[in-house]
Write a structure and sequence with these properties.
Blueprint lengths: L2 E14 L3 H9 L6 E14 L3 E5 L6 H8 L7 E6 L3 E5 L10 H11 L4 H15 L14 H14 L4 E5 L7 H16 L3 E5 L3 H7 L2 E6 L2 E7 H17 L2 H31 L1
Parallel strand pairs: 3-7, 3-8, 5-6, 6-7
Antiparallel strand pairs: 1-2, 1-4, 8-9
Helix pairs in contact: 3-4, 4-5
């Protein structure tokens, strides 16, 4: 079976600054300012055509960062991502311009995806109908609620017929009826053999929708396997996590950070040897 997504040793580093002054000094002076923060460290996984993979993990685990890298929106610091087919990210307000109207955003996003104006004109009625925005389609997006932004982003993404669909918490925003309609559309895509990546805190949706699970913890892969293998372990972890006090959680985090440092040092060493060669 053909591989749709190949992620190898993905590492993503950000710089955290205490002020805008530190940010500027870090750019213009030899002295280093700011603190390195690794949202992802040495992440590996593969998805085959037709796979439905769920990304799970507590807040700050790197789920959204990884989904943005796979979608080509955010560049990785190290590692490589191979995506075979057109990927579409469905997330609240992803790629939407606040000062433009909903209709203008449809045209802009579709143009960026390679459609011409004639094709967009044909697609537009279906996108507007699916979004259920009605007269609000000609209002600036900055006046939309988060649910309305999610509807518009979702409607655009599903109507461009992508090969790979990445859904980042988009089904958890808005009313129940639209969420059910959106989930039904995702199941239709799944039946068509499209590759799906699903980011959600809903264990129920993961069990209902996915076959494989990638469990991220502090930017690292904790587990990758079938729903039956991974979800029970994650549910057990969540029960333990909820019982931990702040001190215990901090100790757990520090232990994970030590593992992350080892991974990062190993990765930097490998990159250095590649450059020397």
């Amino acid at each position: 079976m053909k591989k749709a997504i190949i992620v190898e040793n993905i590492t993503k580093k950000y710089k955290l600054y205490n002020s805008s002054k530190e940010r500027i000094l870090d750019l213009i002076t030899p002295k280093k300012y700011g603190e390195d923060f690794y949202a992802l460290a040495g992440v590996n996984f593969e998805a085959y055509k037709g796979d439905a993979i769920g990304f799970i993990g507590i807040n700050g685990s790197g789920k959204s960062t990884l989904s943005n890298i796979v979608a080509g929106i955010v560049p990785e610091t190290f590692g490589s991502v191979e995506v075979n087919g057109q990927a579409s990210l469905i997330a609240v307000s992803a790629g939407l311009k606040n000062d433009l109207t909903g209709r203008d955003n449809i045209e802009l996003k579709c143009l960026m995806l390679g459609f011409n104006k004639e094709e967009i004109k044909k697609m537009e009625p279906a996108i507007i109908e699916f979004s259920e925005l009605g007269k609000f389609i000609d209002q600036p997006v900055k006046s939309y609620s988060s649910g309305m932004k999610s509807r518009l982003g979702f409607a655009i993404s599903v109507n461009v017929d992508p090969d790979i669909v990445i859904i980042d918490e988009a089904l958890s925003v808005g009313d129940k009826a639209f969420s059910e309609k959106s989930l039904a559309k995702m199941k239709e895509f799944k039946s068509q053999g499209k590759t799906m990546v699903f980011v959600s805190h809903s264990i129920g949706q993961m069990k209902d929708f996915c076959e494989k699970i990638l469990w991220l913890e502090f930017g690292m892969v904790k587990e990758f396997g079938t729903v039956e293998e991974v979800i029970p372990k994650y549910e057990e972890f969540l029960n333990q996590w909820k019982k931990m006090n702040n001190k215990d959680r901090e100790a757990y985090r520090l232990e994970a950070m030590e593992k992350q440092s080892e991974l990062i040092n190993k990765h930097y060493t490998n990159e250095y040897h590649k450059q020397v060669k």
